Amino acid sequence: MVRGIIIIHLVSLCLGAEIAQSVSIKTGDQLAVLEFEGWAVSEPLTEFLTEEFRQTVGDLKIFQVQDRGITNQIKIFKPREKDYWSCWSKECAIDLGRQLGVNYVIAGNIQKKGDDTFLINGRLFSVDMETMLDEFAMGTSGITDSLLLEMKKMAYNVSGLPIPDTLSVGSGISQVATTDDIKRKRQWIKLPPIPSKIKALLMSTAIPGSGQIWVERKYPGYGFMGTEATLGMAAFIAYYQYDKAWGGFQDTYKSYQNDTDPHNLLELRPQIIQYAADTRKFNSFMKNIRSVGLSIWAVNMVHAYLVAPSDDFFDGEYFFDLEYKPDVNQVQFNINF
Amino acid sequence: MLTRFNSILIFKIIRFCVRYLICGAFVFFSCEEADYTLDNPNDPENMDLEPPALFFHPQEIQTNLDSSFSVQLYGLKLNPAAAAHLDIRYDWGSVEIDSIVADTFFQSDNDPVQIVIDEEGTLDIFIYLLPDTESDQNGGGTWSLATIYMHPVSTGESELLYGENTRLRDANNDSVVVKSFGSGYINVE
Fold this sequence. Notes:
A: alpha/beta; six-stranded mixed beta sheet; two-stranded antiparallel ribbon; B: eight-stranded mixed beta sheet
């Protein structure tokens, strides 16, 4: 792979000055890391490992790695019949690379082979050259830490750099050391990661149904969204009617209080009574809508929390985690607040 | 450790926001109820009259010796009528009549005919609607029949009353029912 990159750069340097600009554009170092496909591995775990891989490759500064959000835009704006994360062929990867405007694309998958055995596959595609430059495969036993380590190793492989000894040891200490070695200069403020359940809850709190849609439970999501939108529209119409009646009430009541002509006063009196009755009617309608809307909103929030995937790969720093205790030979569930 | 602290802090902030969002929604989603009191003293409904009725408007007049004033002879929910004899009693030692003008109630395309006889505290006003091409009587309702312009001649309190000869007639010369009569009060300072 390194040779491939070096050859690309050498070719670009050897060409004339006039065409150097176009060549440098074509052989840039923009890289998009597509989300790894998980085979018998949970989606949050693959997301997490992909992001770690993406960050590690970015920290090595061989490639300019495209941000996750930009890469994911393709999923949002140009959905495919089949989910593009399983894009494993050259044509598919290159097509996506062009849409993302990058020079290289990495696609991969994480397969669970046994109880504690995982296989990580990765492919590096050159969008400009329309070819697959390299293919990687790494096996590992053990869950999170080991997988994370293998992803970091793969990041070094992809970048064409030798894997440091600290990573090769494969212990918890080596992982910390590696993390320390990588200086993430641009991350001045790093907010703590939010578990998927909380994120879904927040999204559905802000926009009903959005949390469900985010966790791919689209029909309930659209249902909640549609119901709340309908109730909102009904409330808006009721408010419009109320506002109209309230305006009429205020005008007529003010006239009634200031006028002295008995004929006018006698005409204003029933109008005031009617406007007041209307304001009460529409206000009562709005209150009913409010009650129903809030109930559905609350159900939507609970539903979003329940249907969101559990981030059981989080390790001790968050709200809860699963931890293996070798001294008692048990997996323990911990809650941190 | 710091990350854990931040997570807990964020969770607490979220819990705070959600709690007050829900509580606040109950306040913001409802609107003000219309609260009113129909207590205008010029409103005939507040004059304890049984319609159809005749009353003075305004009911109470506060004035002084240097100024003149007017009072309207008002009909409340009257049936259609073509003529009226308004027998008005007043304290002729307290106020003097300047003029009388027929008002909206008997107005058609033509101005009404009016005859006024003022004799020492008894004011007889005869008003006749002049028929036009469309009708020979009015449509009834709550309107002013006439306006009396007067001025005080001495200080003190006096009363305005409808006399027993007051009556209304329709185009067929049948009596128009008037169930109750209001009174007026003048205080000259």
